Amino acid sequence: MRYAIVSDIHANLGAWKTALADIADMKADRIICLGDIMGYGAEPVEVLESVYRKAYAVLMGNHDAAVCGKMSADVFTPRAAQAVTRHREQVSAAGLRWLSRLPLVLDARGFRCAHGDFSAPAAFDYVLDAETALPSWRSAAEQLLFVGHTHCPCIHVIGKSGTPHTLPADDFVLEDGKRYIVNPGSVGYPRSKEGRSTYCIYDDHARTVVFRSLPFDHESYVASLRKAGFEVEPWLARQEAAQSIPELRERLSFAKPLDRHQYARRVRPTARTSSPRFLWTLIALGLLGLAIQIPLAVYHRQMGQHQPSAVLVPSHDLQPLNAYPLSPPDRNLLPELPSALGPDGRIAGWRYGLNDRQRQQVAVVQREGAVALCVTHGAATRFSLESPLITLTGAQVPSARMRGRVRRGEDFDGAVVFQIVTYVEKDDGTLEQVAVNGFEVRDTRGEAKDTFSLNRKVEFPKRVTHLRFRIETTFKGILMIEQPVLTAEQTTKGKK
After folding, report:
1. Contact 406, 480 (CB under 8 A)
2. What pLDDT does 490 receive?
C-alpha cells in the first residue's frame, strides 16, 4: 500500500490541487491528512469539501480544533485568529460537525500518525528537534511515526545507541533497529527556506519514505489573501517577490464583448419616484448611513486598521532595509522620495496602493525646492504609501520619532494617518505583527494655510525586531506628501 501523507493545507486550494495532481501521478493508494485543513488561507470551504471527498483518513489539527470550537483561538497570533473567525463563519454546520469529530491520533498498520506531539495530542506541541521528539518516542511504540504542525519537512531518528538526532528531509528505507518520526512539511503554508509545497509517500511493502517537493504559486495565493481582506505576512510577501515573474506588457482584457442580441430584453430602463415622501425617506436613510459610517471610518483610521488595496505598485514587497548601523544617529531610516516616477509608475524605494486607477493619479512634484508626492482623487478613495520592512537587529532601538508634513488642496476632504507597524521575528523565522501605532496628521501650529504636520515619538516593546512606516488616507481632492522622516531614539540609560 502506498500512502500519501499530507499536512497543513491551510485553506490553500491552489496548492492542494497541485498536490492532488502529483499524488495521482505517483499512483498513491490512499491519502492520510495529518490535520490543519483550516487556517490562514482564503478558501476553507472548497478545501474542506475536497479533503472530505479525497482523503482516506483525516486528523484534527489545532486550527481545525479552533474553527469547530474545540479549542480557544486566544493562543493564536492575531493573523491566525482572524482566519479562524472568518472560516467559522464560512463553513456550514455540517462541516463544523465533521471537523469536531476528527480524531487526534491514527493507529494504522505498522505506523501511527498525529498532528503534533504524541505524548499529549490535544496540546498540539511541536516536534522540532531531538529534544522535543523524546516525549513522542516514549509515548508510541511503533517504528514509524508521522507528525505535521511545524510546516517544515524533516526526519527524527533514534537508533540502538538511544541518542536521537534530526536530519533534513530525504528519501530513505526503514532499517531494523531504528525508529523514525517523519514530518512531511506543509502543502498550503510552507515555512521552509525554499517555500515549496511538500508531502511524502510511504510504501509499506518496499518500506520506503519518499519526499515530494512541488511548485508553490505564491502570486496567486497572495492575490487570494488580499482579495479576502487578509494582511499578507512579510515572509510570504518575500517569497512572492522572489518567485514572481515581472510583467512585460500592460494588462489588457481580451474577453469578447457581448453582442446586442445578448443584452437583457424587455426590462424597465428607467424608474422615477413621483412621491415626495418617498424621496425624503431615501434622503433620511442616506443621512443615517453617513452618520453610522463616518464615526466607523474615523475609528478604523485611529486604530490603524489596514485593508489591502486593489492595486499595489509594485505588486511585490520591497527588499528589507537595515537600521544598523545608526550612523549618523539621527539619520532618516526611510528612503528618499525620488525626483520623478519610474517608467512603470513606481516610486523608487516605496510601495503604494490604489483602489481605483480611473479616479486616482500619483505624481512627483517640486515645491519650494523640495520633492513632494502629489496624489489626486476625483472621489473619496483610499490611498496608502509604505516603506520597506526595516530590520532593527543590532541597532538597539527602544523608540522612534515619526515626523512629516502634508499640504491639502482647497477641495480636500478626508484624513491622513501616519503609522508605524511593529513585528517580532519568531523562532521559525516568520514575523508576527505586534502593533500598529497610528496618528492623524492635523497639527497646524506654525504652518502655512492648508498645511498640517506630525511629530510623535513611538515606544517599542523590547522584543520588537522589525518595523514598517505607512501612510493611510481616504480623501477627495488633492494631497501633497512631503518627505517623511523616521529617526531612532536610542536609550540614554547609563550615560552621564
Report:
1. yes
2. 65
* Residue ranges in the chain whose pLDDT is less than 50: 273-276, 278-279, 281-285, 287-305, 492-496
**For residue 247, what pLDDT is reported?**
66
pLDDT at position 251 is 62
Q: Are 180 and 130 in contact (CB under 8 A)?
A: no
pLDDT given at position 290: 44
Give the count of beta carbons closer than 10 Å to the beta carbon of residue 481. Answer: 22
For residues 213 and 300, membership in a common domain is answered with no
Residue ending a domain, choose from 221, 245, 279: 221
> Domain range holding 408?
295-489
Residue 18 is predicted with a pLDDT of 95
Residue with cell 483525516: 58
| Residue 114: C-alpha distances to residues 40, 56, 118 (Å) | 20, 15, 7
Looking at residue 308, its pLDDT comes to 60
pLDDT at residue 311, as a whole number: 82
Rounded-to-integer distance, Cα 18 and Cα 10, Å: 14
Please report which helix (H) or strand (E) contains residue 435, including its range. Answer: strand 431-440
Q: Select from 40, 57, 36 the least CA-distant residue to 48.
A: 36
**CATH code for the domain in which residue 158 is found:** 3.60.21.10
3-state DSSP assignment of residue 283: helix
| CATH number (domain holding residue 420) | 2.60.120.260
CA 148/CA 210 separation, integer angstroms: 16
Buried b (16+ CB within 10 A) or exposed e, 2-32: bbbbbbbbbbbbbbbebbbebbeeeebebbb
- The 3-state DSSP composition of the chain as helix, strand, coil percent (nearest 5) reads 25, 30, 45
Q: Which of 286, 149, 233, 140 is nearest to 431 (CA)?
A: 233
Nearest one of 192, 189, 143, 141 to 169, comparing CA atoms: 192
